[in-house]
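quick q for whoever's on today - can somebody do inverse folding on this one?? i tried earlier but teh output was garbage lol. tokens:
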């Protein structure tokens, strides 16, 4: 993340996507009045307005946008002005049908929605940069414009295109990476199934085929697709910077449970401000955990700095099989949790609920029912809450624990032909993150090759299937120098080319963990196995087991039954000045929580404060004070030890603070 250009707004930014072009102009005045009532300070504008801004090729009409920006400025609302490149107009595709995306089966998709373009299309790139440049030159000095909003949710609908243009771009990316075909053939293992390539033109995207594809081919394709979209983003960014060097630029990432198309470790350094879109999934029994995990990952992508929540919802969305409405108080708890985990802005999709279009049933700040609605009342109350938290802006959240997160490892593990198709990277990481969240332990996320990992006491690698030699050495050195590392099953199994590390499991981590495995025993869906040893009574595990033997480690738990009865399931190994743990299975939640508690207590990691089950505890640290966030997800309320000032009410706190049932408290604790 760039530190040269920052968003300069007082307090916590508040607002949402504003689409006045969808409404008669007489509605705009009411919008301004209600924005003032709600305490709105920033809105995103122009995200899907390309067809209106450029009604024909090279013909521009900015009259509407001029009036919108002038109106926002007159009413003290900052504009996050978007390049409208996520939705090219119909006239563009009529002129350039070759820019339409092609799916793996070879079908050309039609325009008529959004993000219907090939990321490698030269015609799209030229048109996108042109409209971005014209927009930037016109509004670079407009007083309403506080930030550029590049595109919208890159990769949400067109993370990959399989057309011939994309194939040529892929080959160019591969040439730059490997240099020559012998190096590519070696990396891809193309002697298998007669896949050896003699000419670059023989290489295609991993289109639909009759059997499992080459895993390294697929992995490089994922890397290429992420880089190809990133190149579009940085090209627009450079156009904007040239026209307006002082205005920061962002694009809304999608760090949430269901999206994995882009390697955001590579994206984050290219942006001036990091922003995220986060939505709850109706099938998630504890969505507050995903909010926290995503927020901590966003803060980590931002290098420990605050970030912006660019989109979330006041209520139900419109794109899930069943779109659950939020419970009373849930929207407020969601928003405050995002702030707790580093957000310096809370924005929604969208300001006014749409009457027409594909998202007409998506909730908004101003719902179809208008101001006589629970959602509107909650929106106004949240605006007041955020104003009371203005001083929190800019504070950080130091952590002693970090979780290893790697998109390469995620992509590789979820490729076909694994020992079990039930492996889900996000689920495995969340398994380990959840007990730390429940305990109120601050967590960062880091790359496996992060050179600064010694700033942590404890590193967790719940799922690091793929790891290169440099990263493996980095983690080994961390333990040698006195750190504690815990590693999950099936980690270290392959190198950066998806080649199995020979000599036994867990591959790259055998020595540091003091174990050696010779056979994997994944479990069937629903199958469990009992554990015994230094674990809770009735401890069980599921999903995965493996036969390992000790080569220096001690067994903490073993399998109590089945073909691996007596075989270690959890091990501990003093190594150098530190300790390495191996969890060779997936323990049940209670057993895993007990294990995480033992590991962190042995490492000297303590919670931010003691709180009852169901109270989320997060601390942000400022220059002059700490800010203790206490959010009740259980609906029971609590008295928590604290001293200072409770910011949401303005009341002094002496000894304990009351967290209302289903509510929250934020205590300013002076240093």
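ok took a stab at it. sequence:
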């Amino acid at each position: 993340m760039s530190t040269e250009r920052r968003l300069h707004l007082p307090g916590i930014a508040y607002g949402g996507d504003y689409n006045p072009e969808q409404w008669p102009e007489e509605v705009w005045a009411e919008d301004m009045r209600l924005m003032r009532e709600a305490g709105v300070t920033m809105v995103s504008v122009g995200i899907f307005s390309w067809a209106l801004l450029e009604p024909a090729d090279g013909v521009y009409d900015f009259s509407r946008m001029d009036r919108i920006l002038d109106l926002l400025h007159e009413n003290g609302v900052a504009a996050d002005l978007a390049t409208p490149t996520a939705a090219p107009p119909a006239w563009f595709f009529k002129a350039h049908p070759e820019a339409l995306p092609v799916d793996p089966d070879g079908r050309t998709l039609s325009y008529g929605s959004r993000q219907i373009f090939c990321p490698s299309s030269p015609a799209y790139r030229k048109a996108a940069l042109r409209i971005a440049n014209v927009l930037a030159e016109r509004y670079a000095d407009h007083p309403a414009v506080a930030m550029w909003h590049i595109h919208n949710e890159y990769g949400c609908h067109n993370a990959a295109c399989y057309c011939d243009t994309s194939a040529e771009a892929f080959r160019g990316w591969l040439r730059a990476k490997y240099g020559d075909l012998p190096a590519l053939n070696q990396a891809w293992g193309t002697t298998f199934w007669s896949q050896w390539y003699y000419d670059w033109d023989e290489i295609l995207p991993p289109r639909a085929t009759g059997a499992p594809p080459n895993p390294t081919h697929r992995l490089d394709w994922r890397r290429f697709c992420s880089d190809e979209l990133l190149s579009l983003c940085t090209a627009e960014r450079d156009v904007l910077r040239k026209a307006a060097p002082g205005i920061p630029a962002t694009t809304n990432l999608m760090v949430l449970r269901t999206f994995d198309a882009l390697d955001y470790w590579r994206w984050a350094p290219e942006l001036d401000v990091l922003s995220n879109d986060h939505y709850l999934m109706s099938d998630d029994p504890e969505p507050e955990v995903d909010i926290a995990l995503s927020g901590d990952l966003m803060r980590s992508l931002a290098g420990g700095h605050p970030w912006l929540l660019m989109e979330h919802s006041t209520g139900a969305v419109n794109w899930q099989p069943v779109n659950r409405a939020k419970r009373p108080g849930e929207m407020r708890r969601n928003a405050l949790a995002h702030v707790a985990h580093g957000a310096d802005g809370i924005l929604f999709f969208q300001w006014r609920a749409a009457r027409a279009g594909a998202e007409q049933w998506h909730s908004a700040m101003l719902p179809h029912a208008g101001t006589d609605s629970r959602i509107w009342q909650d929106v106004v109350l949240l605006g007041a809450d955020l104003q009371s938290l203005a001083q929190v802006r800019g504070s950080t959240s130091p952590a002693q624990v970090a979780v290893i997160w790697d998109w390469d490892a995620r992509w590789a593990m979820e490729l076909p032909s694994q020992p079990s198709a039930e492996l889900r990277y996000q689920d495995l990481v969340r398994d380990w993150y959840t007990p730390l969240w429940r305990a109120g332990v601050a967590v960062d996320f880091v790359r496996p090759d992060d050179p600064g990992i010694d700033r942590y006491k404890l590193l967790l690698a719940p799922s690091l299937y793929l790891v290169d030699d440099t990263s493996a050495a980095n983690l080994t050195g961390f333990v040698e120098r006195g750190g504690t590392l815990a590693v999950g099953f099936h980690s270290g199994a392959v190198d950066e080319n998806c080649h199995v590390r020979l000599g036994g499991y867990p591959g790259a981590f055998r020595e540091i963990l003091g174990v050696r495995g010779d056979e994997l025993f994944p479990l069937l869906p629903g199958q469990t196995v009992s554990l015994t040893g230094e674990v809770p009574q009735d401890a069980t595990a599921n999903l995965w087991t493996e036969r390992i033997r000790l080569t220096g480690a001690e067994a903490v738990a073993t399998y109590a039954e089945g073909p691996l009865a007596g075989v270690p399931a959890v091990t501990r190994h003093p190594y150098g000045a530190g300790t390495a743990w191996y969890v060779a299975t997936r323990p049940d939640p209670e057993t895993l929580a007990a294990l995480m508690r033992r590991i962190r207590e042995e490492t000297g990691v303590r919670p931010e404060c003691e709180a009852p089950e169901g109270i989320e505890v997060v601390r942000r640290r400022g220059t002059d004070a700490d800010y203790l966030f206490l959010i009740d997800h259980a609906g029971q309320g609590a008295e928590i030890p604290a001293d200072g000032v409770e910011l949401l009410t303005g009341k002094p706190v002496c000894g304990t603070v009351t967290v209302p049932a289903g509510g929250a408290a934020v205590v300013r604790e002076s240093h």
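fwiw The first strand starts at residue 13 and ends at 18. also The CA atoms of residues 525 and 595 lie 23 Å apart. so keep that in mind when u check it
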